[in-house]
Amino acid sequence: MNLHAMKAIYLFEMARTWRTLWQSIVSPVISTSLYFVVFGAAIGSRMQEIDGIAYGAFIVPGLIMLSLLTQSISNASFGIYFPRFTGTIYEVLSAPISTFEIVAGYVGAAATKSVILGLIILATAALFVPLRIEHPLWMLAFLVLTAVTFSLFGFIIGIWAEGFEQLQFIPMLVVTPLTFLGGSFYSIDMLPPLWRTISLFNPVVYLVSGFRWSFFGTADVHIGVSVAMTLVFLGLCLAGIAWIFRTGYRLKA
Amino acid sequence: MVPAMTSIITVSNLSKRYASGFQALRNIDLDIRQGEIFALLGPNGAGKTTLISTICGIVRPSEGTVTVGGHDIATDYRAARGMIGLVPQELTTDSFESVWATVTFSRGLFGKPPDPGLVTQILKDLSLFDKKDAKIMTLSGGMKRRVMIAKALSHEPRVLFLDEPTAGVDVELRRDMWQLVGRLRARGATIILTTHYIEEAEEMADRVGVISKGEIILVEEKAALMAKLGKKQLTIDLQNRIDAVPESLAPFHLGLAEGGGALVYTYDTQAEGTGITVLLQALADAGLRLKDLHTRQSSLEEIFVNLVSDR
């Protein structure tokens, strides 16, 4: 195990995070605050409680998930795409380092950044609405698991992408819509039966539902299903990465 | 010179066909000896960079094996790659990082514990120490090249690959680079370089390999190569200009140079006799008076151009 290499990649990526800390934190904090102003204050004041939870508090887990998913994907995809773009990837490919160590370094750093960001958004949200967290350990577990899973997904996108546009493509056109339609701002029980069934095909529903359960103890789907679905997606991402490194896909000629 | 005969890199029957169908390497067999400076020459697109990239683990071989220090690059890649430092041809650097951070990163990446003293020494050797906190994007092209060499040396490799190290580099850096190569070799490192500047290979290398269209067409001790393929030219300056080479001198295939003021005789140093004595006698018989004589050995470049164009 080349621990020095994993540490080197992790610290190198984290250095990039600290360097861009201001942008990294300010923009999600501002957009979260805007969501609170619009959804929480303007609309939420006219909304009834959902499952006995004030609307302002109800949307907090979904908002954190939204940032967590998009940030994990963009951090990890940029982290691996940028060295491919500049050519500095040659060094990683020629180093005495295994696939696992490369992925652990890049994905670990991307997930760390997302988790920090998620906690900052949680703290920001606490300024707007009174929050309770019924299962703090489960909350942290979901936070970390989702960050890792979607950082792995981002890593795959970063290897697949052949331009900066493609890098933005999946987060903007797939993940954001799925998150909005995945019960971030409503309970899928509020939907007509047909749409509710369709929603169950949206993987983000399970993430948001499980995460919300860790806050309020209520969920759209059973917590066990949420955990299982998250693990399934994690497994798919790991399989994708294993395939990439076995075939050298877009990394090695 | 016993250690010099031990192979540090062994390439056996190595072929590379890219997904596009382009055959970049064809059945390459090559031994690099420990402690030598090996110059790999060849025209653009001959496969130099593909060969280096394959040995370093960046390109996957289609066929064949490579061992570095006895370690197979596929099955024992950690040990094999740990011995190698690579300075690629393209200037690719982490623009936003400091020189110090990027060199420290490289050392870690190759599995070595931090060693600020060593990094300091490497940066000083490369006249980079003043710039250690500078962001790489603020450096000149030559300085970036030095940074890439520093990165390659950061984990104390036993084998150093320099792919076109002096392309687009100023005279001063080129001189520094060759001094560095000399120092590394003195410490026992093996150096494999590709270059377009054949005079550099001629000056620095112990052995020369020529690659063309994906095949190694020749590997030779530099001196032996020069002797074997070297043609010498004898230029004879004449007292008086002549309009044409006299009939009696036709067997010597002389060329007329300097507007009739000189004759050029080309001969092979490996031949039984050079024919110079006979030529001089014939010149005297033809009534030509000599002003001066000088000889010149063909350079590696001329040899190389002949080799490649012959195929």
Tell me about this structure.
The complex is a heterodimer of chains A (253) and B (311). Chain A is mostly helical. Chain A is 77% helix and 0% strand. Chain A has 11 helices and no strands. Chain A is globular. Chain B is an alpha/beta fold. Chain B contains 10 helices and 14 strands. In chain B, strand 1 and strand 2 form a beta hairpin. The longest helix of chain B is centred in the middle third of the chain and has 16 residues. The interface between A and B is medium-sized, with 27 and 36 residues.
How do the strands and helices of this protein lay out in sequence?
The complex is a heterodimer of chains A (253) and B (311).
Chain A: H1 3-19, H2 21-43, H3 55-58, H4 60-86, H5 89-93, H6 99-128, H7 136-160, H8 164-180, H9 193-199, H10 203-216, H11 223-247
Helix pairs in contact in A: 1-6, 2-6, 4-6, 4-7, 4-8, 4-10, 6-7, 7-10, 7-11, 10-11
Chain B: E1 7-17, E2 23-33, E3 37-41, H1 48-56, E4 63-68, E5 71-72, H2 77-82, E6 84-87, H3 99-109, H4 116-125, H5 141-153, E7 159-163, H6 171-186, E8 190-194, H7 198-204, E9 207-212, E10 215-221, H8 222-229, E11 231-238, E12 255-257, E13 262-268, H9 276-285, E14 290-297, H10 300-310
Parallel strand pairs in B: 3-8, 3-9, 6-7, 7-8
Antiparallel strand pairs in B: 1-2, 1-4, 4-5, 9-10, 11-13, 11-14, 12-13
In short:
The complex is a heterodimer of chains A (about 250) and B (about 300). Chain A has about 250 residues and is mainly alpha-helical. Chain A has helices spanning about 5-20, 20-45, 55-60, 60-85, 90-95, 100-130, 135-160, 165-180, 195-200, 205-215, 225-245.
What attributes characterize this protein structure?
heterodimer; A: mainly alpha; 11 helices; 0% strand; globular; B: 311 residues; six-stranded mixed beta sheet; 10 helices; 14 strands
Instruction: Summarize the helix and strand pattern of chain B as letters.
Output: EEEHEEHEHHHEHEHEEHEEEHEH
Mean pLDDT of chain A comes to: 89
Number of strands of chain A: 0
Instruction: Give the termini separation of chain A.
Output: 25 Å
Secondary-structure element string of chain A: HHHHHHHHHHH
Q: Bin the helical content of chain B.
A: 25-40%
Q: If interface size is counted as residues with C-beta under 8 Å from the partner's C-beta, which chains form the largest one?
A: A-B, 27 and 36 residues
Question: Which strands sit side by side, in order, in the main sheet of chain B?
Answer: 6-7-8-3-9-10
Shape of chain B: elongated
Strand content of chain B: 25-35%
What share of residues are in beta strands of chain A? under 5%
Oligomeric state, counting identical vs distinct chains: heterodimer
Alpha-carbon distance between the two ends of chain B? 35 Å
Query: Biggest β-sheet of chain A: count, sense, barrel?
Result: none
Which structural class is indicated by helix and strand composition of chain B? alpha/beta
Counting DSSP H or I runs of 4 or more residues, the number of helices of chain B is 10
Gyration radius over CA of chain A: 19 Å
Q: Helical content of chain A, roughly? A: over 70%
